Amino acid sequence: MKVAVLGGGQLAQMMALAGTPLGMSFTFLDPAPDAPAGSLGRHVRSGFEDPEGLDAIGQWADVVTWDFENVPAASARRLAHQVAVYPPPHSLEVSQDRVVEKEFLRSLGIPVPAFAPVDSNESLRRAVEAIGTPSVLKTRRFGYDGKGQRVLRVPADLGAAWAHLAGTPLVLEAFVPFTRELSILGVRDRDGATAFYPLVENVHRDGILRRSVAPAPGLTPALQALAETHMQRVFERLRYVGVLAIELFQVGDELVANEMAPRVHNSGHWTIDGAATSQFENHVRAITGWPLGPTTVTGAVGMVNLIGRIPDPNAVLAVPNARLHLYGKEPKPGRKVGHVTVVAESHDALARPLAALERLAQG
Ligand code: AMP
After folding, report:
1. What is the 3-state secondary structure (H, E, C) of 133-187?
2. Measured between alpha carbons, how far is 124 from 164 in angstroms, rounded to an integer?
3. Separation of 106 CA from ligand 1 center, angstroms?
4. Residues 19, 17: Cα–Cα separation, whole Å
5. pLDDT tens digit string along 91-114?
6. pLDDT per residue over 165-197, tens digit each?
7. Pocket lining for ligand 1, CB < 6 angstroms
8. Ligand 1 centroid vs 215 CA: distance in angstroms?
9. CA of 259 to the centre of ligand 1 (A)
10. Residue 205 has pLDDT above 80, yes or no
11. d(Cα 28, Cα 42) in Å, to the nearest integer?
């Protein structure tokens, strides 16, 4: 099976690390000469809209996928005339625009924060009147890791937030007073079979994921079932194939959707070391038409992102059961350069090694 990936970042790298032992070969389309996945397959150095590059991978591949959701949807659609493309390109169009995404989720009965599109100072004023504060002003498109966001704590913050973000379509969202942040990851194969991982508890700082714990501590069957019901609706509406992630706010017993990612997801990296089948293996199995693997988790799993710096590997690996994953990227402030996972028998037993890894990650 020949798999082409739009994007050659760490997610593509981990897809290839999962698919290669299954006999799959990989090509990555990425303009960056030092794309992390480059050494694990063929690297086509071209822009994501370059017809020559797209045709080259379209002719070679049995199936095309991507590792980031800002892939131009038109490129995915162009490839879909030539070759199987999974997830369906339409899922990019939905997830790339926060207003379209929220309307889509709401149409499926999935709760989302109150929101209003904003395209002028005047419409921001009206949106703040309708939604109130605290609220969050975000760019509709191309936001990731908390980039392109301003919190409005009081209505008077409107001017500064507008000055910071004006010039691009925006959305104002009610600030959700969440108990905690969660995500659900699931996978659907070409025949419509699905599998779900347990809800993950996520901690963000400065809009970037820092730590995930799976299963989310105190997870009840009812909350898991609710998240799976939401995801199943998205799967069916999009006739989805591959891994999907939905980021959620837990508010009491309720789940409010923040955003969805039609791809493998950072909050699922723990599955490499902590689940019977990783998200990466299940993604490549799903898109190539193979059966899904079990998503069973035994014990408790913690994942810490390495952001902006690589700690001493000797110290990381001295933590019992720690697993180090480095992406081969040059450390820069705010850049994800690796992650560490630790698997323990219980959440209680996880607390110490996880805290030790967090300290090492912070330096
Ligand atoms: P996003 O880029 O939308 O995933 O936002 C990054 C992070 O900002 C989230 O994981 C939350 O921690 C925080 N955040 C974003 N939107 C909201 C919201 N409407 N209410 C509360 N926190 C938010």
Report:
1. CCEEEEECCCCCCCCCEEEECCHHHHHHHHHHHCCCCEEEEECCCCCEEEEEEEE
2. 13
3. 17
4. 6
5. 999 999 999 999 999 999 999 999
6. 888 999 999 999 999 999 999 999 999 999 999
7. 113, 136, 143, 146, 173, 175-176, 181, 204, 207, 247, 258-259
8. 21
9. 9
10. yes
11. 6
